[in-house]
Amino acid sequence: MTVTAAVVVFPGSNCDEDCRHVLSDVLDVSTQMVWHKESALPDVDLVVLPGGFSYGDYLRSGAIARFSPVMKAVVEHARAGGLTFGICNGFQILTEAGLLPGALRHNRGLKFVCQDVTVRVQHSDSALTSRAVAGDDLIIPVAHNEGCYYVGPEILERLEGEGQVLLRYVDPDGEVRGQAAVNGSLAAVAGICNSARNVFGMMPHPERCSEALVGGPAYGSKNTDGRRLFEGLVAAAAGGGA
Amino acid sequence: MSPEFHNNVPITPELVAEHGLSPDEYDRLLDVMEREPTLVELGIFSVMWSEHCSYKSSRVHLGRFPTDGPHVLQGPGENAGVVDVGDGWAVAFKMESHNHPSFIEPFQGAATGVGGIMRDVFTMGARPIASLNSLRFGAPDHPKTKYLVEGVVAGIGSYGNCMGVPTVGGEVTFDPSYNGNILVNAFTLGLLKADGIFRGFASGVGNPVMYVGAKTGRDGVHGATMASDTFDDEAEQKRPTVQVGDPFTEKLLLEACLELFATDYCVGIQDMGAAGLTSSSFEMADRAGTGLILDLDKVPQRAEHLTPYELMLSESQERMLLVARKGTEQAIVDIFDKWDLDAVVVGEVTDSGEVAVLWGGETVAQIPVAPIGDEAPRYERPYAAPTDLEQRQSLDLSAIIDVAPGAPAADAAVKLVGAPNLASRQWIYRQYDHMVRLGTVIRPGEGDAAVIRLPDSDRGVAMSVDCNPRLVWLDPQRGGAAAVAESCRNLACVGAQPVGTTDCLNFGNPERAEVMWEFVRAIDGIAEACRAFGAPIVSGNVSLYNETGDVSVKPTPSVGVVGVIEDVHRAVGMGFREAGLQVALLGELEGVEGASLAGSVYLADLFEVCAGRPPAIDFERELAVQGTCRRLIASGVVRAAHDLGEGGLVMGLAEMCFGGPGVNPVGVRIEANPLGRLDQLLFGEDPGRILVAYRPDDGAAVEAEAKANGCPLTVLGMTGGGRLVVGAHLDVSVDALASSWGNGFERAVGLGAS
Q: Considering only A219-223, B122-126, B731-735, which range has the smallest mean pLDDT?
């Protein structure tokens, strides 16, 4: 069965083509681009909200994009249990749209940060992390200005309790601390899912390390850690569950 | 019938002078116009004949550049140059300065510099896929340096990141000559099909002229004139002439233009950059030998009560002028409407040979197109060697105590790798998205040149921007040649063959004979080197009047060389990454002249001395060294390569030990002995040298390749351990070097962690 995906293109998206490339050319997923002014989504297994600067990040990252016509269909897809994945700006849009809890604030250093970071898989019982084992460290790049995850204490407790924190930043010394070095995220949160475990958001860019040639110098220039996350989603889409 | 012109603003000699035109230039204007100009016309001449737009001081010398070659599809004269890179692909690239605006308002100045160069590239029909930058700041401890560094880097990042174009490399120099006049040079490279080039031609009488993109405001009126003047103490009062960038709008403009280029609606297109509507309309008509009518009432405006003078001279960003095939207007409007951008017919191509500008139903300017170019002033400025040249070139090494082996050499090495001109640039490139678009094979800090893969191809393009202004100041011809040689060497170190060059020539006031001499000599050096390396100049930019008070910047002809790698999977970085590799030198360890400390970072940053005569480039040697390196990378033998440049042998070895971000450092032990002074062996900067690392089993292949190319080869030692050891002379831990190098930049400039 061919897995199908849609990549939503907002004005200012700039990782849309990258996501299409990885889904379509690396993972053989039949992928369509959907312009944000569309009011409906095609019937697909997976909807990806890519990174970028939708609406120039004006007002607040993701705050305007969530009012794009297509978002109504995205919300319906997600509420109906469809796999939905937001990367970077896509994660920000999902929080603004209320599909994921929390918010992404300005990085602690108040500067854009682009570099490889290590994230530790917390739970493998989700589509996104199903091809990894809890405790695995993945090297995945970040590139963002507003990636400092924040959520109120009660919700954080619930997220932790229900295993919705899927990825945490690991400090360079290999420790996971409450405040990881890269952006100051609360509880070092790098990626989460909703309680139904079908909507995923993460700040690091797995599409950037899905092919060895461009995966950077990690593991002797053979870093394809990001591909494992996409493969998990694709397997879930193909098998109809995580 | 010629319209009647009523000058309600009298054209006085003072007004002419305020427009930067000399009395002699005004006489030329009268010859062209055969009448007194209107204020709008005076404004148009003022920008078209500014140094920035007319190249009046430089043009006579730029003709000496080689501009032709087997790969060149478009040479200088267009918005950007284009070279063929194989498999049906071509790349368009150019470098431009945004020096004065960046000094006055670093964030916006640098951001709009990036925006401008990207528009130059995508007007050619190319999608920008990589950017580089070349930055020069004053002394690290100068009170303004920290503010300027933070603003420029944030500005470049904000624009490039939002555009989704990776910023993959660059260079930074600190030198007190830039205290009052920093240099910000931005390079962008775009990808297009070799048969899909768009050009800036206003062809086809009767075709509509369309304005697309952002609306026009008052920002940047007279930016080109400012860029053609020296600074004084009131430079900051010129802040209103700096444009304000909106990368989000430019991203939409980029996508809309690329969508347009996929159709056959567009006849010609040009960016409204310096001198906005004026230069785009005149240049497009000039190239096509046509004329234009422009109706300013139709221009989308975001400020009220804009005068025709302001409309013609505004440098509002993110705008393009295009000529459409008649009948396709509505289809073009529909494309731009999808991206929420204006696209408006503002005029028509005519056969009048004139640009006629209408406003409020009246003709406010009517200027013949060809003469404004042909009759533009062109100066053969007098030039003469600086009176202090002999002093610049005399280096008395007896006044500098040679470094002693052991602890003193180790201390000097630790200090040098952390010196402002050599320390890690990670603080900068961490703020640039250098991976977006999934093309980046060699990242910043990972290799000597950036490498980007091409889609649906095994090939990659490599690029490097370089200039060592100290060398150019000491000997402009040798320094100019050295800049090109270094760029080409950097390409060789990742496995690429040079195919084309762009330049950005930053100098002081050309009305000074010694500045003009530096300019002329540097051009000779660059031209000679571009010929030798088969890397013709395909685009470029000249920035003169880079001085404040009577201090000129060091002559800084930055060059950006682009190369091709046949099999991008074979591209290598500089990091050793593993123990047990053999390390060898291609080239001679020490030159015969004993001049390798001239202009070195060692003397500049540790002794505050910049003197001597740098060695000449031995082109035959360079070609042998670079060719050997490139072939050994192509055959998969060489696993790491690094050019020996600033900081010499120790810096080269140290960076190979560090290996760049995310790489585990590894030590190295080599044998080498000085011909004379130890500091010269360790820190001297002779050109024509590349360090390579390979598996010992491949030693015979390395020897054979070097021999076949007539390349000197010295096996120096092996990688391994945690120390950097040079015979009995130097023994220092890689950790100590790395910690000095790692935050030396932030330390010197007083920056916080990013």
A: A219-223
> Model's pTM, two decimal places?
0.96
Residue B727 zone, left/alpha/beta (φ > 0; ψ -120 to 50; rest): left
Phi, psi of B36 (to 5 degrees): -70, 135
How far does the CA of residue A117 sit from the closest CA of chain B (Å)? 9
Question: Which residues does chain A have within 8 Å of residue B659's beta carbon, measured at their own beta carbons?
Answer: 217
| Burial (CB count <10 Å: 0-12, 13-18, 19+), residue B537 | buried
Which positions of B are annotated as active-site residues? Answer: 52, 98
Query: Into which CATH architecture does domain A4-237 fall?
Result: 3-Layer(aba) Sandwich (3.40)
B488-529, pLDDT tens digit by residue?
A: 999 999 999 999 999 999 999 999 999 999 999 999 999 999
Instruction: Please list, in sequence order, all residues whose beta carbon lies within 8 angstroms of the beta carbon of residue B665, skipping any fewer than 6 positions away.
Output: B657, B658, B659, B722, B734, B735, B738
- Please list every residue in chain B whose beta carbon sits closer than 8 Å to the beta carbon of residue A21: 438
Q: Which residue has the tokens 């918010």?
A: A103
In degrees, rounded to 5, the angle at the alpha carbon of residue A168 between the alpha carbons of residues A164 and A174 is: 150
Query: What's the mean pLDDT in B274-283?
Result: 91
Q: Mark out the alpha helices in B181-268 (DSSP H runs).
A: 223-226, 247-261
| Cβ atoms of B720 and B666 closer than 8 Å | yes
Question: How many CA atoms lie within 13 Å of B663's alpha carbon, on the beta-carbon side?
Answer: 29
pLDDT at residue A58 in the model? 85
Longest alpha-carbon distance in chain A:
47
Residue A223: phi and psi, rounded to 5, are -75, 115
Report the alpha-carbon distance of residue B566 to residue B574 in Å, rounded: 19
Mean pLDDT of B440-463: 97
**Which of A213, A223, A224 would you mutate first to test chain B, the one with the most B CBs within 10 A?**
A213
Q: Is the four-CA dihedral B263, B264, B265, B271 of positive or negative sign?
A: positive
Asked if B453's CB is within 8 angstroms of A213's CB, the reply is yes
**What is the pLDDT at residue B239?**
57
Residue numbers in B near A141 (CB within 8 A): 435
The residue whose two tokens read 């001109």 is B421
CB-based contact (8 Å) between A15 and chain B? yes
Give mean pLDDT, residues B399-406.
Answer: 96
What one-letter code names the amino acid at A142?
V
Compute the distance between CA of residue B488 and CA of residue B619 in angstroms, rounded to an integer: 11
A14–chain B nearest CA distance, Å: 5
Q: Where are the domains of chain A?
A: 4-237
Q: Which of the residues B162, B438, B456 would you substitute to probe the A interface, choosing the one with the greatest number of A C-beta atoms within 10 Å?
A: B438
Cβ pairs A/B, distance under 8 A: 113
CA distance A162 to chain B (A): 33
Contact B522, B105 (CB under 8 A): no
SS3 of residue B229 by DSSP = coil
pLDDT for res B1: 38
A4-61 confidence digits (pLDDT tens): 999 999 999 999 999 999 999 999 999 999 999 999 999 999 999 999 999 888 888 8
The answer to whether residue A241 scores a pLDDT higher than 60 is no
Q: Is the pLDDT of residue B233 over 80?
A: no
Q: Which of B158, B164, B662 sits opposite A14 (nearest CB)?
A: B164
Angle in degrees, CA B457, B463, B466, rounded to 5? 175
Q: Which of B658, B641, B681 is nearest to B737 (CA)?
A: B658
- Write the residue in A51, A113, A217 that is nearest to B663 by C-beta: A217
Residue B4 pLDDT > 80: no
- Could you tell me which chain B residue has the CA closest to the CA of A206? B438
Residue numbers in B near A7 (CB within 8 A): none
The answer to whether residues B208 and B268 touch, using CB atoms and an 8 Å cutoff, is no
